[in-house]
Amino acid sequence: MIFHEIDIRRILATNLLGIESKSHKRDWDFYSEQYVTAFFTLLDTGRERKCSNTSILNVKFMAFLFLMRHSLELLMKKQIVQSSPEMLKGHNLKDLATVLGVDVQDFLSDFALLLPESEGDCFRYTTDNNGVRFFSVLNGISYFETCNHFISYYNQLKNKNVDYLPDDRLHRGYFTFYPREVIYNGVVASHYDEAIYDLLMAIENKQIAAQQIYLPLLFLIRHSLELKLKQAVEPIGDAVDANDKDKIWKEHSVSKIFKMLNKYINKAIDLIPANDGLLQESLLYKKKAHDFQQQINKLDSNSYILRFPVDRKGGLSNYMPSKSDLSDALRLYVEADTFLVFAVEVLAKNGYLKLGDDIMHELMGC
User: The domain containing residue 115 runs over which residues?
Assistant: First the structure.
């Protein structure tokens, strides 16, 4: 559930989210600057001294670390576009470092906590496609040094002078995160929600413009939606076909996941008798679901090219944003959240959505 809906609806009512389509560029420099800007915007919230040792980044570190790792990948790929275009399809940072001719051991040491030899899913999901958790460490993990290594890499590459994090006990504490707390994809989604909110507030406060970060914002919105749809299936429990349950956790198409979930919702709505006041509201949400499907199709088809200026085959991306893309996606993000709350919680509460035995045992504490 989105905890900042009122604030998000407020910014939707402004003209701050428009995108200047003519300024969009399909190159690695443009994409890397968008993601780096989003990352540094969140990083700055961690610089602020507070009365507590607890960092506000700890409720959004999965999105924060995704932005850092992805920014690093884009910066590295920008340097090999001409010399090694065949490497642009992979996401293994060690391989990119090898092609760039840097000291690989130093690189791996500097960025070990970003899991450089993975395919980059480690901060988007809790497990890989085989169900193996990316992080099994019980204690907190300090990303303080990793952040400073990234700042150093960026400064040298771009001849910039971004300030390093202050080296004191408080800031080292602020950048210590606890992956053990992120057990479910729904928790990952909440991390993405908090990052989306912070970036929107930065836009509202005129710290940055939507034009500078619309690509990462669109991706964060899309990914949060994917995780929430997956998480919405979980309360249905064993009532979900085994085949669907297996597919849904490996599936990354928001459109396909939504269709699977909607199948079970429609079955529940069909069971509501005509004299039940819930029927009219349910039929309204059923119509909304159809509208969502159209909007999701648009957002879903652009998933990869919201992260890279090329398509999966290596060809130039065909994505050209329209002025309302960000506000449209944000509106879908808010409305879909309301829809999911109704779909699972309301229908189940009224006995129209069959919950599996596994979930019933959890609810009854047995």
Answer: 5-364
